[in-house]
Amino acid sequence: MECWGWPPSYDPDYRPPATQEHWFPIRETMDPEQRDEAILARIQQLMAYAWERAPFYRRKWTEAGLEPGDITSLELFEQVPVVKKEELREDQAANEPYGSYLCIDPVEVTHIKGTSGTTGRPTAFGISQRDWVAVANAHARVMWGMGIRPEDVVLIGSPLTQYWGSWGAYSGAERLGAAVFPFGAGFAGQSLRTLQWMRQMSATVFYGTPSYALRLAEVAVENGIDPRGLGLRKMFFSGEPGASVPAIRQRIIDAFDVEVYDSGSMGEVAPWMHLGASDNAPGVFAWQDLVYTEVCDPQTMRRVPYGSEGTPVYTTLERTSQPMIRLLSNDLTSWEAPDKARGRTYPFLPKGIYGRLDDMFQIRGENVHPNAIDEIVMSAEGYGGEHRIIITRETAMDELVVQCEFDAQKTSVAEDVWIKKVGDDLRNVLGVGAKVVTVPPATFERTEFKARRVIDDRNLFESLDRGQT
């Protein structure tokens, strides 16, 4: 296997010929069973490394009655207890600033990234220069698989803050030799300037979130700019579901006349692009030689068979600073067996990451994933560009209301007929009725980052029932 050593070390001058489909042909097309043997050996090395250097892992595994030498197969590896995000936050609070799972001297940390902290204490990612180089090489491999080449100009259209997505895309594009334009996102008026610079610099590739791409298309039309004339040839995304959701990806393709590629997992697991597409189609590969991915039953944390749905559990195979060993994602996906006809012999996630276990909600006994609603309303002719999902409990029963912007100029269907059709489609797919309410176009605020469309009012009514204010 090319450059398969521990700790990882890459030739900084290596780059495939432009016509070569794979960055590392052997690693990407080898027999999956042979790759699994190499992955097992790496996991054994990684666990021994963490056992020696990280009190967090040594304590966790000791409590589970395990030592690194006990793991002699990938099946036995499933017995290793998963790590949850809250454990990482708690450990960092007790062992500031990087936690007791930091496996290097803190002076070796050269890059600091982290979570936003919007759902609790921020988690700091301490990254060594060795890991920074490994992450750049990994992302370059995946981006190469997307067909991005040194002659491209890659515009980064997501916040250049602690958010790993922006910096991962930046470092990967830089490593493969492309020109990188880190424009960012998130400031008032920046969308129009993004479009102007995109055109001025002849950008050929865009990275951001699907929500922001759709916002850019709206701003372009509002300002007399044809998004299809910008010269983009590829757009790749992470940060939220969408690029593998047929209705959303088709809206992006229609707006920009581009190829669309999905990618992304978790910031804690950089290289997050280890889930990445190599075709202009829904779905992503699990690049197992970068981050070993297990799709697991959420109850047992054991792998589910191919063809089944579960939550990804990740193990970084090239990180030496803060290795993640069986980190629970709480995301939702399904996977399929490796198939050499796809061009790479990795497991395949045909719908990408399409939801989160903690985003799922129940309406009258039915499990509902917001992404299923998104796909229905966004594919409806006459959809005005945004919507909101409201869960309420004004009476004894939960109610689901979907507020949709409706644009009569985009359809010949009458508004009342449109409402009924969308409502029927929602009932057929969700198994529960939803009240569809139309509002004028541009009613809802647009986003330059991740879309937040679900509003759950049930807690409000529960507190009122208890006499709380």
What does this 3D model show about the protein?
- It contains 13 helices and 21 strands.
- With 469 residues, the chain is of the alpha/beta class.
- The protein has two domains: 1-356, ANL, N-terminal domain (Rossmann fold, 3-Layer(aba) Sandwich), CATH 3.40.50.12780; 361-465, GMP Synthetase, Chain A, domain 3 (2-Layer Sandwich), CATH 3.30.300.
- Strands 4-3-5-6-7 form a five-stranded parallel beta sheet, sandwiched between helices. Strands 10, 11, 12, 13 and 15 form a five-stranded antiparallel beta sheet that branches.
- Strand 8 and strand 9 (284-286) form a beta hairpin.
- It is globular, with a radius of gyration of 23 Å.
- It starts with 24 loop residues before the first helix and ends with a helix.
Tell me the overall shape. Answer: globular
Largest sheet entry: 5 strands, parallel
Beta-strand content bin = 15-25%
Helical fraction: 25-40%
End-to-end distance, in Å?
A: 62 Å
Tally of DSSP helical segments = 13
Q: What is the CATH top level name of the largest domain?
A: Alpha Beta
- The fourth-level CATH homologous superfamily of the largest domain is ANL, N-terminal domain
Task: List the uncertain runs.
Answer: 460-469
CATH architecture of the largest domain: 3-Layer(aba) Sandwich
- Compute the number of structural domains: 2
Count of beta strands = 21
User: What is the CATH topology classification name of the largest domain?
Assistant: Rossmann fold
- Provide mean pLDDT, rounded: 90
